[in-house]
Amino acid sequence: MTSPFRVHVADLGQAGESRDVTISGPAGDWGIELSRVPDEAVLEGTFTITGVGNGVVVKGSASVPIHHTCYRCLESWDSTAVVDITEMFGDGTLEGVDYAIERDEIDLEPLLRDEVTLALPLQPSDDCDQLGGEGESDQNADSPRGESPFAVLKDLLEGDS
Ligand SMILES: [Zn+2]
Question: For a 10 Å CB count at each end of the chain, is N or C smaller?
Fold first, then answer.
């Protein structure tokens, strides 16, 4: 089966020629620890592919559902990651191009996987630490450290005398 992420670009051999493509394909098993693309999720993307002589430039954006788990309280929720793409696929004659045209095709899957993964938070949080309750906010609400113990000690000493 042909991957929906592969796009034939032989018609874009001349610099300046461009074509719009729409992609819809499974983004299976993408993600990092606490933020992952759910099973069966589908990535949707719209791109303009432009020939630049020794390669093509892909420009556009893609969106994909993400299932997050809060690193702090393990609550989970869903959102959508949107990534903007501007990337060159070279014909092999250029140095420093990460992606290549292979057999007149470009494969957008590794690129999209990289970009989506980079867009995900390392420590997804549902802001539970901003809502009070347990956690750091309680400690931070105390008097500045170093002052409060002395104040307490002073009260004790004065109370005793
Ligand atoms: Zn949380």
Answer: N
